[in-house]
Amino acid sequence: MIAEAGHYALVLALALALIQSTVPIIGARLRDPALMNVARSTALAQLLFAGLSFLALTTLYVTSDFSVANVFENSHSAKPLLYKITGVWGNHEGSMLLWVSILALFGGLVAAFGNNLPLSLRAHVLAVQGWIAAAFYMFILMTSNPFLRLAQPPLEGRDLNPVLQDIGLAVHPPMLYLGYVGFSIAFSFAVAALIEGRIDAAWARWVRPWTLVAWIFLTLGIAMGSYWAYYELGWGGWWFWDPVENASLMPWLSGTALLHSAVVMEKRNALKVWTILLAILTFSLSLLGTFLVRSGVLTSVHAFATDPTRGVFILLILCVFIGGSLTLYMWRASSLKQGGLFAPISREGALVLNNLFLTTACATVFIGTLYPLALEMLTGEKISVGAPFFNLTFGPLFLPLLLAMPFGPLLAWKRGDLRGVTQRLMAAGIAALLAVALVWAWTTGGAALAPLAIGLGVFVIAGSIVDVAERTMLFRLPFDAAFRRARGLPRAAWGTAFAHAGIGVALIGIVCESTWNTEYIGTMQPNDVAKLAGYELTLKDVMQRQGPNFRESLARFRVTRGGDEIGEMTPSKRNFTARQSSTTEAALLSRGASQLYISLGEEAAGGAVAVRMYHKPLVLMIWWGPVLMAFGGLLSLSDRRLRVGAPKPAKASRALQPAE
Amino acid sequence: MIGGALVVLAIAAGLVLTALRDSIVFFSTPQMVAEKQIPVGKRFRLGGMVEQGSLVRGDNLAVSFKVSDGGATLPVNYKGILPDLFREGQGVVAEGAMDASGVFKADTVLAKHDENYMPKEVADALKKQGRWQEGEGGKPVMSQGAAKPVVTQ
User: In angstroms, how far is CA A434 from the centroid of its own chain?
Assistant: First the structure.
């Protein structure tokens, strides 16, 4: 009954999406406000029904209704409640349902908070959202229906893949999807602007908060996924240049570029045509990511075993939306008037540079990810493009970007003074050189590049501090006056500083982890001691334990440093009975930003056990960085000037906002 | 400004082309290795099935096993901890190079499959050689594949 209701709600959502995608456009053509307003009510109703459908599937999982094929394949009655719920999106059908539910959520938000949008723009934006939604509802209903029943309901389910039974999975996909799908708003705005043939600075003011929301979630989602892979897959790696990771990195790179070019458009009314293109490309890359992951063309963790009709269907959606929007762009972009001239050395110029490097870096990731697929299709030859490729291409492109980053926020709009900015960044430069010298002296004769890269990270962080100090006139005014200025500083300025500093923090973490990571691999008997980076790890014992839906063998290690007791670590190996498969649960011990990491291998004869241990210096900074970036984004978002959906008098916001 | 952009793009294109020449890794099955004469020391990915009963554990985490694609068989040496999903009779992909004695020395063993899913490269290669039986091992499942590349020494 619940399954049928969920299925029916999904069909209704499709019908609503079809109305939403046509009627408002006709309304805009006829200038009929009533027809245009249909967009709002259908978007809200669509959200309701998509939500109901999602709720229905969740209920089926929670009640372990194994007469539904999807639940049978991916759940087990003994599974803890949390993983019953997260199991909803731990499989192809359910995750697609989550995808459209989030899409409906964003459409609903625009409908609910878009009162200050011009009526025809809102109608067009929601209609484009309707097209995307309709395409994906059809995809789910025709190829991946999660509500199919089994003729003979089995008594017990096949359980969720053990590596996915983890809190990381609870958070990672929804975050990632909020990011991916959030960019659909920027896309819809871009297409709507092209249809209307009109775009102004106010357009950028509406688009920027939505892009920012999507960007924050995508940033956190990628970081979460990386941390999950780090502790769950048991070998301490945090980024693999796996096609699926690249699929999420590409929209992030172009989304970051979009965020910056939208600033130029909002403040200076320039780069309009480029911003529109970026908005289209960013969501196209999100769709591409969905295609790569969902169609199973890739061999990787996330590649669900394939059903070719699904791949072809998503490919079709991909072609229609990317091809269609780019064609529309070619046809209409020339009708958008360019404006706002600026000198090459200026804030605008710096943002263009940022865009140039980000999109080029994105393009190299794109090539590295799709080249193997293209080559296989053309010649049948199978290759893999791994970390060496990306280190050689992505790395060199990111270096100049990071070097230039502190300069950007200090340059003035329109015409900047590079020499003046350089002088103001002197302090940051000195801090960076000190850091290089210090690290160099400390590691004596180690890798030459690492101290330089750390210096760059310090430069980026110090540059953000200089930016804030300059704006508040810290050190020049008395402290309380500077403090007052700091409080008066727009939140967006703080946001920029935090986000930029976050990049520096992550860079330092990445460099330290990959340069000074030490490991120990071997077999240990109880009471054996392994020495690693000044720590002594003693294996106390190995014992067996029964969990809710698994058995595990648990090893206990005593960690000491120079005889001082520090703590206990208990890595384990779990054997999941329903699927006859095992996972490695690594044990982590944080010491500041550094971590000790133990994962277990096979048990050998006589109570010995194979272990892999790492000491990972400053590894946590890799994830603190993105958290800082997301926090910066959040600050920016809370800026009064671009608060999402802040109710404003329609007339005031429809007028062009003066550039600052 | 446009000139600068072109310079950056040109540099990026150069980087991509060099990187594509130097840092990609080809995939082979034992049969292809036998036919193609891959030079000693050239890195590639080897895929196939782990032969039943071929796994031998030596001292200090050294292991050796045989990889077969039904046509040819190739001995593999590896030192380290094997991934959770490594099992005899199942698909495996290993990265490394041939040594002078005709043994494949793997430095990475990838496990990209769960108990009933085979690595796609392996399945395709077996299909091409007509050694694929539907419903045996390669049955599509609705779960996610399991693990990322697992051990690098």
Answer: 34
